Amino acid sequence: MIDGLIAGRLIGDPERRQGKGDSSYVVARVRAQSSENEHLMVNLIAFDEVPCAVLLALRDGDSVSAAGSLNPKVWTDKQGNTKPALDLVAHRVLSTGLAF
């Protein structure tokens, strides 16, 4: 497991989804910029109540930072080019005016 902190802008609005039983979680996508000025897609998922609430208060294009467990991966675009991506299980979420 890698502990990480990412920052970027939301792509689309975060969504609440239903898990098994009565559990729910929130998913969001963030476009972050790497040190080489490339854009990196980060798939966020939050299970805890407070990070979920913060994410749901945000909208497409809002700036956001999240800390949690990172999992690096690679995806292939329509042209067959491989691109880096990250999955992050958010334990903490920070945004302008919202910090929990």
Task: Describe the structure in your own words.
The chain is mostly beta strands and 100 residues long. Helices cover 8% and strands 61% of the residues. It has one helix and seven strands. It has one helix spanning 49-56, and strands spanning 2-10, 15-18, 24-33, 39-46, 63-76, 82-95, 98-99. It has a five-stranded mixed β-barrel with strand order 1-3-4-6-5. The longest helix has 8 residues, at 49-56. It is globular and about 40 Å long. The model has no long low-confidence stretch (mean pLDDT 90).
Keywords, separated by commas or semicolons:
100 residues; mainly beta; 5-stranded mixed barrel; 1 helix; 7 strands; 8% helix; globular
Quick synopsis:
This protein has one helix and seven strands.
List the helices and strands and how they pair.
Blueprint: E1 2-10, E2 15-18, E3 24-33, E4 39-46, H1 49-56, E5 63-76, E6 82-95, E7 98-99
Parallel strand pairs: 4-6
Antiparallel strand pairs: 1-3, 1-5, 2-3, 3-4, 5-6, 6-7
